[in-house]
Design goal:
Layout (H helix, E strand, L loop, with lengths): L1 H16 L24 E8 L2 E2 L6 E5 L2 E5 L4 E7 L2 E2 L3 E2 L6 H14 L3 E4 L5 E5 L2 E8 L4
Antiparallel strand pairs: 1-2, 1-3, 1-10, 3-4, 4-5, 5-6, 5-7, 8-9, 9-10
């Protein structure tokens, strides 16, 4: 009986003297990435396509917050703009001259999935894999 009492006292003393293990603190996290790339709202005119001067029917693009819209060679179009990247392009479906339709199809392929950014000279660049495929100049209102 005496052994049982001594064992109980010993266990109680050992369990009371142990400290709780420290609670691990999570490592510091990096600052979150910006939630959006800022592209100034406004209208722009297409000047170059695939590094060549654009010489087709006028093309305009308007940036308005999280969306873009514009006039292609034949149809009007619009798309979302999320963190600077253009989403799927939707357009009206009017028919036009074959050459204008070909330009428009190429334009939509280049726009969709490209990243928009503003250049140092205030032009709008649409890039894929870092290559500027489309360059737009701001529309000057007179």
């Amino acid at each position: 009986m005496r052994l049982l009492i001594l064992t109980s006292i010993l266990l109680a003393t050992v369990s009371c003297s142990q400290e709780d293990p420290p609670i691990p603190t999570p490592p510091p996290q990096a600052a979150p990435a910006p939630s959006a790339v800022i592209i100034p709202d406004g209208s722009y005119t297409l000047k170059t396509m695939n590094s060549s001067p654009y010489q087709g029917p006028p093309v305009t693009i308007t940036v308005d917050g999280g969306k873009i819209s514009g006039k292609a060679p034949v149809n009007n179009f619009h798309a979302t703009l999320i963190k600077g990247t253009i989403g799927p392009v939707a357009s009206t479906m009017m028919a036009g001259e074959p050459e204008a339709m070909k330009l428009e199809s190429e334009l939509f392929q280049l726009l969709e999935g490209s990243e928009l950014n503003l250049t140092a000279d205030q032009r709008l660049a649409a890039r894929k894999k870092g290559i500027a495929l489309l360059m737009f100049s701001p529309v000057v209102i007179k």
